[in-house]
Amino acid sequence: TWTMANVVDEQVERIRAQVGGGRALCALSGGVDSAVAAALVQRAIGDRLTCVYVDHGLMREGETEQIERDFVAVTGVDLRVVDAREQFLGALAGVSDPEEKRKIIGREFIRVFEQAALDVVGDAKEHGEKLNFLVQGTLYPDVVESGGGSGTANIKSHHNVGGLPEDLQFTLVEPLRTLFKDEVREVGVQLGLPEAMVWRQPFPGPGLGIRIVGEVTQERLDILRQADAIVRAELTAATLDREIWQCPVVLLADVRSVGVQGDGRTYGHPIVLRPVSSEDAMTADWTRLPYDVLAKISTRITNEVAEVNRVTLDVTSKPPGTIEWE
Ligand code: XMP
């Protein structure tokens, strides 16, 4: 019979056959796909896999710790965390345009990951070993969409820093190529990955950077992170996680409105809740969350998050709205 336990064994065998005594590199994003792919490869080749996690500072509360601590504890993966928070903030300074933000975040990610890859490959070389495999969490739907091709990848040098070796060339290891998302989650459960990782809802690559309407600053990130953590905690407490496709929490950083708290006037920012129901993110409807859950979220955010004095609910379907605000 075909079970997820069989899938694990089968994939571990395949990875061993492909990589042999070689070494591999994997970029962890915090998402379920790269985590499950890395855990499978770790099971197959152990410490001959090195994972890299670029901490861009745009993750939600607890997510970086989940990777650094929980994921590593469960899998034993050899992980290098690159703290690039300052670099990303610097690159994003003064930028409000959504597409511009996406471009900058994508570009900085490639820069940081490329340097980390060069370091890892260089370290292997020093030990007389070659690292030429790159693990990717490509799923079956991605394979179909792209016409089934691939097999190799180049990390191209995007910056003209002297002394860099030629483009890094890798053979791809894609242990999830035959699986759908729900199967990937089951494999993740099989491998003992943290629940919160296995059941993580979709979260955009540019992270909180595209959930701050306006310029991204450290202070704004801190505000949004606090509000978002409250929303996620309350949705989990109400056991609504698996009913909702995802719930972006957005900070309208350039908007202020008047409020009152204690005996003082406030002039703070609004937070937008964007809970949506969807099958594939192509279309979506706004989720009719219970009023008591909304009330609890609103009370907690306005009480606990300084600078936020209003909580609003987005009741737009997609189309015409998109799921994210940027
Ligand atoms: P929209 O906002 O276009 O989002 O309705 C559809 C789905 O895609 C996610 N999303 C992104 N994912 N990089 C990503 O990796 C991005 O730049 C990005 N923008 C949107 C969004 O969270 C939703 O699941």
How would you describe the overall organization of this protein?
The chain is an alpha/beta fold. It folds into 2 domains: 4-198, Rossmann fold (3-Layer(aba) Sandwich); 207-313, GMP Synthetase, Chain A, domain 3. The chain is built from 10 helices and 13 strands. It has helices at 4-19, 32-45, 63-75, 85-92, 98-126, 140-145, 181-190, 195-198, 218-237, 291-304, and strands spanning 23-28, 49-55, 78-83, 131-135, 152-155, 168-173, 212-213, 249-252, 257-261, 264-273, 276-277, 285-286, 308-313. The protein has a 6-stranded mixed sheet with strand order 3-2-1-4-6-5, sandwiched between helices. β2, α3 (63-75) and β3 (78-83) form a beta-alpha-beta unit. α1 (4-19) crosses α7 (181-190). The radius of gyration is 21 Å and the shape is globular. It starts with a helix and ends in a 13-residue tail after the last strand. The protein binds xanthosine-5'-monophosphate. Xanthosine-5'-monophosphate is lined by residues 102, 202, 204-206, 246, 281, 318, 322-324.
Write a brief structural summary.
Pathway: Purine metabolism; GMP biosynthesis; GMP from XMP (L-Gln route): step 1/1. The protein has 326 residues and is an alpha/beta fold.
- Give the end-to-end Cα distance, rounded to a whole number of Å: 45 Å
CATH class of the largest domain: Alpha Beta
Q: Enumerate the strands of the largest sheet in spatial order, edge to edge or round the barrel.
A: 3-2-1-4-6-5
pLDDT < 50 stretches: 159-164
Question: What's the CATH architecture name of the largest domain?
Answer: 3-Layer(aba) Sandwich
Strand content: 15-25%
**Which homologous superfamily in CATH is the superfamily of the largest domain?**
HUPs
* Residues in helices, as a percent range: 40-55%
Radius of gyration (CA) equals: 21 Å
Name the ligand types.
xanthosine-5'-monophosphate
The best one-word shape is globular
| CATH topology value of the largest domain | Rossmann fold
Question: How many domains, as an integer?
Answer: 2
